[in-house]
Amino acid sequence: MPDPRFFQQAVDALSVDELAARIGGEVVRGGDRSVSAVAPLAAAGAADVAFLGDKRFIASLAETRAACVILPEFAVERAPAETALIVSREAQAAWARTALLFHHPLTLDAAIDPAAATEDDTVVLEPGVVLGQGVRIGRGTRVGANTVIGPGVQIGRDCQIGSNVTIGFALIGDRVRLYAGARIGEAGFGAAGSSIGPVDIPQLGRVILQDGVTVGANSCIDRGAYDDTVIGENTKIDNLVMIGHNCVIGRNVLMAAHTGISGSVTVGDNVMFGGRAGVGDHISIGTGARVAAGAGVLADIPPGETWSGYPAKPLRQSLREAIWLAKQAAGKARS
Question: How buried is 75 (Cβ within 10 angstroms: 0-12 exposed, 13-18 middle, 19+ buried)?
């Protein structure tokens, strides 16, 4: 279930028949079963709707505990016998519509009295700060001018929040620094194809910034699609860095400016990224690894290794290939 500090239940429950009528799809079985939330296949429970959109996850379908699964016709026989099923040619888009039915993000309808959000008078709110319902700010924290903090956000002690920052759907630890213009908790980039064009996939997760994290000016950290985006203790993020949804970044990581991390990337502790490094989605980078400036990472990096180039490769291999290519180009130029 999405965190109620950030999302409200829009519809209490629907039968599977009612749901199929609203989102499109054919009920195979279990039309009278009641459902009230959405979740991924692996995490879904007895009242949840999940979906299967890719053959790669067929093994998870057999083990799911979801009340209902939206799936393509080819997968029906692989689903547990007790699970209600809705067949759809656009299963992910249908699941996205389901999420929109059940879960609405809380909005900043009205600002609250700052005194209701702060621990004591050591908290400083500069002019123009806006706080949503349920915000809590710890002792010794300073919030810069014109910063907007959305409903339910929790901020720890001795933090420094710059001016014109926006924070939503986030839990922030102690001694965190967010520089001017940082965007924390915006919706991650996700869209599902459908007969009427791309459908936005609701982003129902959070951002968790652990103690001692620094986020540079105008950097963006997206909230998770369902699970959380997590930044580990004492990680330092430079200006103009992008971190996509569902990423889990370890402790003491350093990211130089213009680094871009795609969704669902896992980064171990003590990893270093040079400027303008880019990482593809669902990549794992091991503890102590280094990614050179401008590298484009399209494969997992083992712990302790240094990779460079595009596509990124172990440093020595990348340098040998670059030298060989330079020699070939020079030879052709002489001839």
Answer: buried
Question: Residue 227: phi, psi to the nearest 5?
Answer: -75, 180
The answer, yes or no, to whether residue 14 has pLDDT greater than 70, is yes
- Domain 169-316: give its CATH code: 2.160.10.10
* Catalytic residue from among 103, 245, 258, 282: 245
Digit-coded pLDDT (tens) for 90-130:
999 999 999 999 999 999 887 787 777 887 889 999 999 99
| Of 321, 256, 229, 311, the residue nearest 301 (C-alpha) | 311
CA separation for the pair 308, 316 (Å, rounded): 9
Residue intervals in the chain for CATH 3.40.1390.10: 7-104
326 phi and psi angles, rounded to 5 deg? -65, -40
Select from 258, 252, 220, 217 the least CA-distant residue to 236.
252
245 is catalytic: yes
Q: Distance (Å, rounded) from C-alpha 310 to C-alpha 321? A: 11
The reported pLDDT for the residue numbered 335 is 62
Residue 334 has what pLDDT?
66
Q: What is the C-alpha to C-alpha distance for residues 215 and 145, in angstroms, rounded to an integer?
A: 17
- Residue 59 confidence (pLDDT) above 70: yes
The CATH number given to 7-104 is 3.40.1390.10
Collapse the DSSP code of 78 into the 3-class scheme (helix H, G, I; strand E, B; otherwise coil) and give the result. helix
- What would the two tokens of residue 151 be? 């409903």
| In the chain, ranges of CATH 2.160.10.10 domains | 169-316
